[in-house]
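Re: that chain you flagged

S.,

Sorry for the slow reply, it's been a week of failed gels. I finally had a moment to sit down with the sequence you sent. For the record, here it is as I used it:
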Amino acid sequence: MTNNTQPTSLQHIRVLDLTRVLAGPWCTQNLADLGADVIKVERPGVGDDTRSWGPPYAPDAEGKNSSEAAYYLTANRGKRSITLDIATPEGQQVIRHLVMQSDVVIENYKVDQLKKYGLDYASLSALKPDLVYCSITGFGQTGPYASRSGYDFIIQGMGGLMSITGERDELPGGGPQKAGVAITDLMTGMYATIAILAALTHKERTGVGQYIDLALLDVQVAMLANVGSNYLSSGKTPNRWGNAHANIVPYQTFATSDGHIIVAAGNDGQYRQFVLAGGCPELATDERFLTNPQRVELRDTLVPLLAEMVKKKSKAEWLALLEDAGVPCGPINRLDEVFADPQVQARECEIKLPHPTAGNVKLVASPIRMSETPPRYDVAPPLLGQHTDQILHELLGYSADQLAQLREKKVI
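Prediction finished late last night. Pasting the structure tokens below so you have them in one place:
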């Protein structure tokens, strides 16, 4: 998929990754995709929490379950793994030596937890003033909640997302609903990526590093986007609308005879084409529904009529009819349908990487497409501690005897 001999955008950058689970690893996988040398530091014998978050596990070469949890695989390609007990003085010294060979440190420990090890920003930047250091926490380094642990699900609730996600309270199944993926973690990883790239640009211009304080709650509030802005402008608390739209009708999901579709009729002409395609010309001329404001006002009258109309045809029939009529529409695909979709296949969204124990692991490609420095896909998510000896020998000059001593003390 990618010519790995091509130059990459970040091939001159080394990242020391002290994160685990999702938000931090998602950020560092982005950086690895763009060419950075990412050294993932993990606890000896245990590793990243997500290594045990299975099933499912990737199948091995014989089709049996390997030890590699799919959750771990999703956010750790392109990295090198070392095991290191940072609670020991020897482990802390190794981190300091690695920091001197790195451009970026990223961690997601609790506030001040690394300070007791001398691995906080103040301590490490004293050794390397141009260091870019990123901390990811639930609530940030300041404020009354700073010491709390933050989890995506809780943040989705606290940050307002669940108040606007889910069916209306008065309808069957109504109530708050979390997103289907840990979207706050993922977006925090994306914001961390952006912040680190900006800090690296500043460093290259000035020679000065800096500290990045990223909080899941801050990200969730920012993600409210126009909904948050609407509230700040109007003072009105928004409602949940499920798969409907507060300001446009019809702009929602409908059940067909064999599945569901999305209809997004954004203007009066598209509405008319929708009902004409469905064989209901009377709805196109009904004076109650001629304009969008009328349809919004009378949604509880109109939508049941549209739902009855849509149920009379199959999903495939509707998609073909509405595509021909110029009405924006789409299917609601299961994941097997997603990865079988010709557009998804044409964009090469699925990749395979050779893995030392799992044969070829299937992963989802980065959505970034670049003409000169495309993302690289040449290193599968590493085994626990796979590169410990290599990194400590090549970067820090540790001898075989020194490595054996550290291993005997269970530092690595």
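What I noticed first: The CA atoms of residues 100 and 127 lie 8 Å apart.

Talk soon,
D.
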